[in-house]
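Record type: monomer structure entry
Structure origin: computed from sequence
Chain ID: A
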Amino acid sequence: MTSPASFATDVAHAETLGWGQALVLCNPLMTWDPYVMLAIAGQSTTNIGLAPFIDDPVLRDPAVLANSISTVDDIGTENGTLTACVDIETPS
């Protein structure tokens, strides 16, 4: 993955082209911290939505996830989004 600054430049360019969302991958072994990337992108954008593509509440505590996307939202222009999915198995 590119550097955080390069990602921010790409997101700003995508915003000028009319894109509505910028998603970043979440893989702690292969990429930069996704929330740092999104926060830096939020400083150079105004309308594009910023979100992690998929994050895992097993690898990253849900409270940390909420705090991280809140930081993205505060640094940017309130354009951070986090969608959580929880799979609950019921006993048969």
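Annotation 1: The longest helix spans residues 62-75.
Annotation 2: The chain has a mean pLDDT of 82.
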